[in-house]
Amino acid sequence: MTTAPHTETAPLAPTAPLAVPATRASGCPFDPPPSVEYARKEQPVTRATLWDGAECWLVTRYQDVREVLSDPRFSSDAKRPGFPFLTAGFKELASSNTSSFIRQDDPEHARLRRMLTADFMIKKVEAMRPQVQGIADDLLDRMTEGRTSADLVAEFALPLPSLVICLLLGVPYEDHDFFQERSRVLLNLSSTADAVRVSQDELLAYLEKLAETKRHEPDDGIVSRLAARGELSNRDIAAMGRLLLVAGHETTANMTALSTLALLRNPRQLAALREDPTLITGAVEELLRYLTIVHNGVTRVATEDVTVSGHTIRAGEGVICTINTANRDEGVFPGSGELDVSRDARRHVAFGFGVHQCLGQGLARAELQIAIETLLRRLPGLRLDIPFEDVPFRTDMGIYGVHALPIAW
Q1: What torsion, rounded to 10 degrees, do the Cα atoms 232, 233, 236, 238 define?
Q2: Distance between CA atoms of 21 and 398, rounded to whole angstroms?
Q3: Which candidate among 127, 133, 314, 315 keeps its CA 20 to 30 Å from the CA of 157?
Q4: CATH code at position 380
C-alpha cells in the first residue's frame, strides 16, 4: 500500500448498492452474503452505495483488508467527514459524543486501551478458566435437569459470556435483562436513530450510576478500578463499560450457538472433535474463520490519498473492510468454503487486525473453547430439534448468529 498517485490504475466496476441487512435468498447461511462474496471474486476493491446515498469503498480480499486495517492513514474516528455508516442507527451510535475508544485514533485510542490491557492479558484469562468452566457446568446442569430439550441460546450460549463479563466489570448479573434488551436495540440493523439514542442513553445512565457507586463502594471489577484511577469521568467510564458489556456477551454468545449449529451440520468434523478433544484450540480458530460473525464489515475513512490494489482512495472517502470474505480468501485458506477443524486457521482476521483488533479476543477464545468442549463432552446425543430451514438466523443484527437454537439430547 502506497501514497496514491492522482490517477486510477485499475478499472472500476459500476457502483453497487450495499444492502444492509444483506439478503440471503440463496446460498448457505454460514457463508458471506452472495453479493459481497461476488465482489471479492470479481472486483475485490470497488465502490458501493450506502443506505443514505453516500458512496464508499468496499475492500473484500484478505491482504487488502489487513493492509487497510493496519494503515494509520485509515481512521476509526466516526466524527471525521466521509466516515461510512451502515445504518441510521449505527450512525447515531458511532458518532455520538460518548463513542468508545474503538472510534478513536492513536494516541487517545492507545491511552484508553492501555487502561484495560491488564484485564484481558493471557495470564489473567488463563487464571479465569476454572471459573468459566464452573459457570458452563452449572448452566448445563440446570439446562439438562429432568429435560431432554432446550433453547441453547437462552439457556447456555447467552448467559455464559454474560455472567463472565458482568463478573469482570462488576455489573450485577441480575440486571442482565436490562442491558441485553438495550444491546439488541443498539445492534439491530433496522433500529432508528431515535431508538438507538434512547437505548444508548439508558445504558449509559445505568453505567454512570454504577461508576459513581463504585467510587464509594469499590470492588475488584473493571468499572471500580477505572473509577479509582481518577483520570476518567463517570461518563467516560460508562462509554468504556458499554463497549465491553455489549461486545462481551453478544459476540461470544452468537459464536457459541452458531459454532454448535455448524458442527451439527458437519457431522464428520463434529466426530473428529469428539474423538480428539485436543483439537478444540485449533477448531475454535477455524470456526472463527469459517463463520466470522461480523458480516457487515469494519469501517474506516481515509485521512490522505492511498492506493489499494491499484485504486486511489482519496482523503475523506469511507472504506468498509469485509472480514468475512477476507477469511474465505482461497489464496490464504484453500478450500475456505469448507469447515475443517484440523486446519491451521490462526491467520484469520475475525477479531480484526492492527491496533484496533479486539481487546477481548483471548477471553473470547477461552470461553468458546470451554463452551464447545463442555457441550460435546456432556451431551453425546446433541442434535438440532427443529428443521435446519426453520433456524432463525440473525440477518437483522449487526452481529450475525441465531436468535434461538432449539436442541435435544
Answers
A1: 120
A2: 8
A3: 127
A4: 1.10.630.10
